[in-house]
Amino acid sequence: MSSLPVAVVGATGRLGRLVTDVVRASDAFELVAELSSRDDVHVPGANPFRGARAVIDVTIPALSPAIVENALAAGANVLVGTSGWSSPRLATLARSLESRPEQGVLVVPNFSIGSVLATHLARLAAPWFPAAEIVEAHHAGKVDSPSGTAIRTAEQIAEARRAIGPVDAPHVDQRARGQQVASVPVHSLRLPGVIAQQDVMLSGPGETLTIRHATTDDAAYVPGIRAALDALPEMRGLTVGLDTVLGIG
Question: Which domain covers residue 49, as residue numbers?
Answer without folding.
Answer: 4-111+219-246
